[in-house]
Write a structure and sequence with these properties.
9 helices; Immunoglobulin-like; single chain
Length: 463
């Protein structure tokens, strides 16, 4: 009896609740309702209100959303078509995006309320209308103009009609400037604003995150070299294969969330000026780190006059990016002593001795008692093995490509500088030397001169 009453109430509610009609009642771009959509989420996505959406579609704000039916999105009169979203890739500009997908630039600016079209960041999702007229569908290729090279010479070199060449702003012209990126509608290659020698780019993760490793991969169609920088930091690129260059770079855990310029430069001859450079912002997200208080550490280990010289020495030691990649696959934990949890994890904001020092935890603290063995987390070469005031008895291992691991507070060091070690080799014993309140192992990974979360490196294989 109760089930029948409940079913009757549900049926009555459905009958009394207006449903969004399959056809809209006014003009404007159309959005197809997806699973889990709400009027609120749709309004936020398109920068409008639920009342305006309801009014444009002749419905109530309490209407049930049925996946697969359409809604007119108000505020974009003159824009027609079905709305979707597409992510900006590194190497795309609003001009190349417009050509690639066949969407009018002005419509893109209006739909996304873009104030700075020249500052689209990699990973940004753009609202657009679906089109079948983009160059990615019809076929096109990218051409890079050389020094003192005219449009006719380019057309001969590429084997295309000179009248098929134009710039990304749509200008069909018979003059170019050096390092112009032109497009030809006589090929079927993907369109970005990057020149033809660069086949594709990939950033992981995108957006980047405080305290994690950013992988920048550039695939080339011909031999060449790539250099780069992120904000003020130099990127070190190394050949992953004959046609792929890769850079590993740590995002500092205290980096302010926001947009930072990523620049790549393409060289065909070392020692000469780059043949092409491209700059685009990428986004850095907050790492979501917690805070903790640490008390009882020796006073000299929170003294800036002691901390700063030691930090400068370590940064200089770990700055070189040696060209040989020594490791393969994921790293391993440097101890098998109670690793189900950690004393303290990477990135935690730390207050030492009730305000004597505020910084963050640059590694992972593993449980251990004095004398427990410490193992190398990956093969490499020992570049430092000795006592330090803050780090205690410490060892640093170079794994190549600017990747280093560090092991602190040891009671005894069992390796020496210049020694080659293998993954799992015993390199020391756990202790409580330096800035420590009890026996444990502090383990670090540095990438591109910056400490990163070591647990990332045991969970996946880089690059």
């Amino acid at each position: 009896m109760k089930r029948n009453q409940i079913a009757a109430w549900i049926l009555l509610v459905l009958l009394l609740t207006p449903v969004i009609p399959a056809r809209a009642q006014s003009q404007g771009p159309i959005y197809i309702i997806q699973e889990d959509d709400t009027l609120t989420s749709i309004a936020v996505t398109f920068g409008t209100t639920i009342d305006e959406i309801a009014s444009a579609n002749g419905i109530e704000v309490t209407s049930i959303l049925i996946p697969g039916t359409s809604l007119i999105i108000p505020g974009f009169e003159g824009v027609q078509g079905e709305l979707t979203t597409q992510t900006i890739e590194f190497g795309e500009t609003i001009e190349s995006f417009s050509l690639r997908y066949g969407v009018d630039e002005e419509d893109l600016i209006r739909l996304n309320r873009i104030i700075r079209p020249d500052r689209l960041y990699a990973g940004q999702a753009l609202i657009m209308t679906q089109s079948e007229s983009g160059l990615e569908q019809s076929g096109a290729s990218r051409v890079l103009s050389g020094r003192s090279e005219g449009i006719l010479a380019i057309s001969v070199r590429e084997g295309v009609n000179p009248w098929s060449l134009r710039t990304f702003d749509g200008d069909e012209r018979l003059w170019v400037i050096p390092s112009d990126v032109l497009i030809s509608s006589q090929s079927d290659e993907p369109i970005t604003a990057l020149p033809d020698p660069i086949v594709s780019t990939n950033l992981h993760p995108s957006p980047a995150v405080q305290g994690h490793t950013l992988v920048v991969r550039i695939d080339l169609a011909q031999s060449g070299w790539v250099a780069g920088r992120l904000d003020e930091d130099q990127l070190n690129f190394f050949p992953e294969s004959e046609s792929s260059m890769v850079s590993l770079h740590g995002i500092h855990a205290m980096t302010d969330p926001g947009l930072y310029d990523l620049e790549i430069s393409l060289y065909t001859t070392l020692g000469e000026a780059p043949v092409y450079s491209f700059v685009q912002p990428i986004r850095v997200l907050d790492g979501g780190y917690r805070s903790e208080n640490v008390t009882g550490v020796p006073a000299e280990t929170v003294d800036p006059t002691v901390i700063n010289p030691e930090q400068e020495m370590v940064e200089a030691l770990l700055a070189p990016a040696t060209p040989d990649k020594i490791w393969a696959g994921p790293f391993q934990l440097p101890s098998d002593y109670y690793t189900d949890e950690f004393i303290s994890v990477f990135g935690t904001r730390r207050n030492y001795n009730l305000g004597a020092l505020y910084y963050y935890h640059t590694g992972v603290d593993l449980y251990g008692r004095t004398g427990v063995e410490i193992m190398a987390s990956a093969p490499g070469v020992v570049v430092f093995a000795g006592p330090l005031t803050i780090r205690g008895n410490a060892t640093y291992i170079d794994h190549g490509w600017g990747v280093y691991s560090g092991y602190f507070h040891q009671s005894e060091i069992l390796v020496s500088e210049g020694e080659k070690v293998e993954a799992g080799q015993v390199i020391g014993l756990i202790g409580s030397t330096g800035r420590s309140t009890g026996a444990h192992l502090h383990w670090e990974i540095w990438v591109g001169g910056v400490p990163v979360d070591p647990l990332d490196w045991i969970e996946r294989s880089y690059p």
